[in-house]
TrEMBL record:
Pfam families: Nitroreductase. It comes from Streptomyces werraensis. The lineage of its organism: Bacteria, Bacillati, Actinomycetota, Actinomycetes, Kitasatosporales. PANTHER family: NAD(P)H NITROREDUCTASE YDGI-RELATED (PTHR43673), NADH DEHYDROGENASE_NAD(P)H NITROREDUCTASE XCC3605-RELATED (PTHR43673:SF10). Gene3D superfamilies: NADH Oxidase. Residues 28-223 form the Nitroreductase domain. This is Nitroreductase family protein. Belongs to the nitroreductase family. Keywords: Oxidoreductase. Signal peptide: none annotated. InterPro entries: Nitroreductase, Nitroreductase-like.
Length: 245
């Protein structure tokens, strides 16, 4: 079967390129939003796209908090400001390697604009996930240890917390990417952040999220003030290691 035959079922744009590629290549983080509301039916479509994402073991333990109430957003705005200020004073103080200062200055300006206008954000989506308690019995642990070997089993014991966090994240972030793609496809601006984790306890309290529920992002959504354009990323030849590192 030829590549052309395999691609016959793809949804293509006017040039014949699969339209999803055009969506991904112009999916900038859009932080300047109009205050106009986003209809609930469009927000529901974003969540539907997220739900279509893969979930480990098909457990589908995700939940999504969708904030549109202006009073609630105003309550969250000071928390957002504190988180952004903490980020810009530490990790975000310097431009990433390979990004020139002018471009980084424009990005910081957009972050500051979003911080200063957060109360006007039309919608905010908080993806949550929580694994159920593990069901492990002695025979299963024995086979687990034999399959991995003593050294690897001991190593897994040391990194179990990291493994659990990555496992939950792997069930959440594919859905988040679907949500971002859907937003771009509908002409909506969105960007993913995890800055809320600086003050996760306070965010949970403000939104009534159970203490034992894990949150994975805070995604502002709205109609863009700017225009979508090509993303700037490293080339494939810079990042690919074929067969071995």
């Amino acid at each position: 079967m030829t590549t052309e035959t395999r691609l016959a079922g793809a949804v293509a744009d006017a040039t014949g390129e699969p339209s999803l590629f055009a969506t991904m290549s112009t999916m900038r983080a859009m932080r300047r939003l109009r205050p106009d509301p986003v209809p609930d039916e469009l927000l529901d479509r974003l969540i539907q796209a997220a739900v279509w994402g893969p979930s480990g073991g098909n457990m589908q333990r995700y939940e999504y908090v969708v904030v549109t109430d202006r009073a609630v957003m105003a309550e969250l705005a000071p928390l957002w400001k504190r988180c952004v200020d903490a980020y810009l004073a530490t990790t975000g103080k310097y431009a990433p390697e390979g990004m020139d200062e002018a471009a980084y200055g424009r990005m910081v300006a957009a972050i500051e604009y979003q911080r200063d206008h957060f109360a006007d954000t039309p919608a905010l989506i908080i993806p949550c996930y929580q694994f159920p308690p593990p069901r492990i019995e002695e025979e299963g642990l024995r086979i687990y240890a034999e399959a991995l070997g003593a050294e690897a089993a001991e190593r897994m014991g040391r990194i179990q917390e990291r493994f659990s966090a990555l496992a939950e994240g792997s069930c959440v972030y594919p859905g988040v990417q679907n949500l971002l793609l859907a937003a771009r496809g509908l002409g909506l601006a969105a960007n993913i952040t995890i800055w809320h984790l600086f003050l996760e306890t306070e965010w949970k309290a403000a939104l009534g999220i159970p203490e034992d529920m894990n949150t994975f992002a805070a995604i502002p959504v709205g109609w863009p003030l700017g225009t979508f354009g090509p993303v700037r990323r490293r080339s494939v030849t810079e990042v690919v290691h074929r067969d071995r590192w």
